[in-house]
Recover the amino acids of this structure.
């Protein structure tokens, strides 16, 4: 669009000699400059084609390298790639698959709670011809339809770490018994408190999460308290995050300076709680416990930050899951039911009547 | 001193040269410059690559699966295309659709309302939100980016309020109907796919065969010109956003059909996914240029890419990488052709 | 000031459009302080004046884009009140705006009929609102041929055209739909020599068809080439009315800038 100048042009139109000159020439004389833009047009098109060709070669190369038509294909769909727990799960599965001579195709949701991404991934895996699918569902009910589709096609479906609802929608579930894990944590905390009157603070995870609820209830059972007991002086939500754990602990300590035992839903929350406790100088007065058993968590126990933690075994979930699929592909045998992959109390201050492992063992077997 | 004009219009001897030039370079360029050819080539290329890499890609069952997976974003992208053609953008389309699923789901599941009523209620609600966006954009001339961004926040809050809790299954027959499928050979065609294609045809017709459609393109291309020639710009913009809202409502029905689960966490990235589809499909973000079929091709490109990468077991990070490259290439080509015209 | 009253010209015919005593103020600024105008059938009337003389404002009043504070506009002798450009268009007044008001990405035929698209006859057109693209293309081509304005293809997008060709499209659009007169705002501004010539030819074609033309221009040679009468405005009023034969360009410029007095002055009605 041309903007006309406002200065009166007396005689000749000065614009004739200006930048607009090109447009006034006939096509034959325009071609040179037009060719310039056509050239850049072509350049981009060529660049695009080059990229796509490179991608083609890459795809071709990688599939040729893996071209074993009789390979057992195993699908794994985790919640996200953001949580290190699931990253370790995936890596353990990949290693086991390689050991077994199978091929693992791993996909994950885009964010915690991403159901559609997982559904699409399972659909694609069915198309790919996998023999078994291992999933940690973001949404316990949202996957039911596509899981059924997979099982109808004879694909073995195993839930890892998180159960579906209903749990028998899958062939089998490989997970920690989170109630049992909470129970161990509670039993230890009670013993560590000795005969002191308990003043318990509970740092919970995400409201409504089945894992969080089970750990919470298990802890209370192991500790020997009922919900609503006055010995529970405070509860806070942390979503399993360190910063929220710290804030929660600070608030609880302000409200109840006489807290002497703390339940945390996982180790990041515990780390946050530790910082708050240390800042108040109450390290010697509080028994801090946790669950998860990642490398960092075991190191906290080793360093004395946490009195004890309960270890989960996602690696076992992953490797046993892969093994089950391979077994199914070879023999048609399916696992079933809830398969407890175990929970182990880790502490350097054990009690003789409560089985536990020390941090040395912990560091060797942790999933971090 | 007086200037003499040098002739009447384009003199005769120049015209043949012009058409000869066009004939030489014209056909090739005209074909390549049609907005949908580029994306179509990319789509076919991806299909070719994946069918060479694995025998499982080109199966009728898999191809129909890919289209099934495109139905929700594909439908949302129709509304996005119309809005982008007016030089706007809609960040709230996914949010509106999710609200539709939650509202319809709760009306049916918890309060035992008839399914048809619940569905219609959800459709009207979504259309209403579209109209709100349209009013803010047309009457108050607020930037669509900001309007839809703010609306998204409001709608997300309302959705969490209405859902109060998490996702819940919606097993009603009518609401789940778009997920029902019939077989055509080995392919499985869902009614949702049929509805989506029907909507594409309808909106294509509106955009290219009616005056309304021309006005939409004109408004996006040069809003002031549209106003000066007497196009009722405000009314057209309002109609675009409102109609888009209705399409998002239909999208929520299609979503319930595909996954019979009302999930407040769903479709979080649908706004960006639909914009990606529109851009890859060759529609200009500056408005006034583009083709609706390009959007469909763009949606399919993304779905084919994801599906193919899974079938070949390639790391999914390539999906984001390639999609990003496609988006930038599409915009770059758009810019180059714009510069060429000036 | 004593003014010498001399008749402008013997009238060529009926007065098509008349403006009497138009006043328009924007705050403290008086854009028009009692401006007049008469447009006679079959003529090209050029309005010239320095910046701030009120040419654009007067044009906007005539085409309905601006509502005057005082004064009257008469079309074919009857008073009219335009509230918006649509009102003026409905009365058969078409305007070619300075920035052309075309959608560059759309093709010529589409632009010509923008806002006034033709639909297919019968139920297909009224129920399905189907456009009659072939008819629009044919009419557009016919119009271009009648105006002797040649373009590469009626289907090419406007942005592919040169500046002069685009101007031609905007002018043709006005020519197709105008029933009484055409108004043009700076039709040759920023056009080169050859293209200006094309546009001036178009203007003559339109006049020869029986549509009188009002045009604003800064370009004196073009004005002198195409105008039948020249209206000189200064400080919001008409100060002179002349023809290319009666005054030279430098004299007109002098009157524009106030260096010389117009020897014709019309007093406010």
């Amino acid at each position: 669009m041309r903007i006309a100048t406002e200065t009166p042009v007396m005689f000749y139109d000065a614009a004739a000699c200006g930048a607009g000159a090109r447009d006034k020439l006939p096509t034959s004389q325009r071609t040179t400059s037009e060719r310039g833009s056509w050239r850049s047009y072509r350049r981009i098109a060529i660049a695009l084609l080059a990229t796509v060709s490179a991608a083609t070669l890459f795809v071709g190369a990688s599939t040729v390298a893996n071209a074993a038509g009789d390979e057992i294909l195993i699908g794994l769909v985790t919640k996200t790639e953001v949580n290190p727990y699931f990253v370790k799960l995936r890596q353990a599965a990949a290693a086991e698959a390689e050991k077994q001579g199978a091929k693992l195709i791993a996909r994950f949701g885009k964010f915690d709670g991403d159901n559609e991404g997982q559904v699409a991934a399972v659909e694609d895996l069915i198309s790919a011809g996998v023999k078994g699918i291992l999933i940690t569902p973001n949404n316990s009910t949202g996957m039911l339809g596509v899981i059924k589709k997979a099982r109808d096609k004879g694909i073995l479906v195993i839930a890892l770490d998180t159960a579906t609802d209903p749990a028998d929608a899958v062939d089998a579930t490989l997970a920690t018994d989170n109630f049992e894990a909470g129970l161990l944590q509670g039993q230890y905390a009670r013993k560590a408190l000795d005969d002191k009157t308990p003043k318990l603070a509970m740092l919970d995870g995400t409201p409504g999460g089945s894992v969080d609820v089970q750990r919470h209830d298990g802890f209370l059972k192991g500790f020997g308290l009922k919900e609503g007991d006055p010995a529970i002086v405070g509860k806070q939500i942390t979503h399993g995050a360190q910063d929220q754990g710290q804030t929660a602990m600070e608030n609880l300590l302000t409200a109840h300076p006489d807290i002497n035992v703390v339940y945390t839903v996982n180790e990041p929350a515990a780390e946050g709680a530790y910082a708050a406790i240390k800042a108040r100088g109450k390290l010697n007065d509080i028994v801090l416990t946790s669950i998860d058993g990642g490398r960092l968590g075991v190191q906290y126990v080793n360093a004395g930050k946490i009195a004890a933690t309960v270890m989960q075994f996602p690696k076992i979930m992953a490797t046993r899951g892969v093994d089950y699929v391979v077994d199914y592909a070879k023999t048609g045998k399916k696992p079933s039911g809830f398969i407890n992959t175990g929970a182990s109390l880790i502490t350097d201050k054990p009690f003789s009547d409560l089985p536990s492992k020390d941090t040395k063992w912990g560091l060797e077997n942790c999933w971090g | 001193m007086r200037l003499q004009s040098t002739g009447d219009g384009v003199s005769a001897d120049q015209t043949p040269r012009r058409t000869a030039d066009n004939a030489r370079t014209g056909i090739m360029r005209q074909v390549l410059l049609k907005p949908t050819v580029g994306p179509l080539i990319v789509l076919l290329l991806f299909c070719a690559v994946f069918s060479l890499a694995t025998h499982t890609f080109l199966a009728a069952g898999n191809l129909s699966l890919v289209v099934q997976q495109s139905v929700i974003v594909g439908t949302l992208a129709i509304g996005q295309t119309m809005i982008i053609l007016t030089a706007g953008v809609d960040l709230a389309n996914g949010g509106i659709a999710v609200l539709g699923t939650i509202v319809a789901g709760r009306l049916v599941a918890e309060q035992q309302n008839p399914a048809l009523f619940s569905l219609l209620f959800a459709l009207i609600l979504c259309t209403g939100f579209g109209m709100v966006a349209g009013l803010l954009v047309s009457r108050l001339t607020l930037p669509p980016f900001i309007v839809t961004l703010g609306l998204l926040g409001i709608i997300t809050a309302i959705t969490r309020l209405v859902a109060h809790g998490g996702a819940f299954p919606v097993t009603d027959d009518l609401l789940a109907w778009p997920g029902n499928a019939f077989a055509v050979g080995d392919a499985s065609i869902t009614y949702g796919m049929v509805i989506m294609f029907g909507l594409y045809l309808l909106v294509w017709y509106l955009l290219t065969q009616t005056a309304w459609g021309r006005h939409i393109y004109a408004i996006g291309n040069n809003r002031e010109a549209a106003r000066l020639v007497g196009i009722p710009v405000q009314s057209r913009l309002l109609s675009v956003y409102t109609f888009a809202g209705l399409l998002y409502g239909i999208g929520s029905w299609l979503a319930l059909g595909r996954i019979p689960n009302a999930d407040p966490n769903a479709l979080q990235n649908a706004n960006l996914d639909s914009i990606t589809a529109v851009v890859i499909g060759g529609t200009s973000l500056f408005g006034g240029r583009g083709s609706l079929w390009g959007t469909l091709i763009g949606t399919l490109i993304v779905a084919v890419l994801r599906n193919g990468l899974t079938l070949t077991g390639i790391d999914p990070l390539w999906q984001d990488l390639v999609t990003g490259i496609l988006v930038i290439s599409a915009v770059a080509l758009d810019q180059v052709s714009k510069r060429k015209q000036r | 000031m004593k003014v010498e009253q001399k008749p402008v010209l013997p009238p060529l015919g009926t007065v098509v459009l008349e403006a009497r005593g138009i006043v328009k103020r924007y705050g403290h600024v008086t854009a028009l302080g009692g401006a007049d105008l008469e447009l006679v059938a079959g003529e090209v009337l050029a309005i010239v004046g320095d910046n701030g003389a009120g040419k654009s404002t007067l044009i906007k009043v005539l085409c309905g884009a601006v509502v005057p504070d005082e004064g009257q506009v008469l079309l074919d002798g009857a008073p009219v009140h335009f509230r918006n450009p649509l009102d003026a268009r409905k009365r058969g007044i078409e305007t070619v705006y300075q920035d052309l008001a075309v959608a560059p990405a759309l093709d010529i035929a589409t632009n010509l009929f923008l806002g006034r698209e033709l639909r297919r006859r019968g139920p297909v057109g009224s129920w399905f609102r189907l456009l009659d693209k072939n008819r629009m293309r044919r009419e557009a081509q016919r119009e271009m041929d009648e105006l002797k304005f040649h373009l590469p293809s009626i289907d090419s997008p406007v942005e592919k055209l040169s500046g002069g060709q685009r101007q031609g499209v905007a002018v043709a659009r006005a020519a197709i739909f105008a029933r009484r007169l055409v108004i043009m705002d700076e039709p040759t501004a920023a056009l080169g020599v050859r293209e200006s010539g094309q546009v001036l030819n178009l203007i003559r074609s339109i006049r020869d068809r029986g549509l009188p033309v009002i045009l604003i221009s800064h370009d004196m040679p073009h004005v002198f080439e195409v105008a039948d009468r020249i209206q000189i405005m200064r400080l919001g009023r008409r100060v002179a009315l002349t023809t290319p034969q009666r005054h030279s360009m430098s004299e007109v410029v002098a009157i524009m800038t106030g260096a010389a007095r117009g020897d014709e002055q019309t007093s406010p009605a």
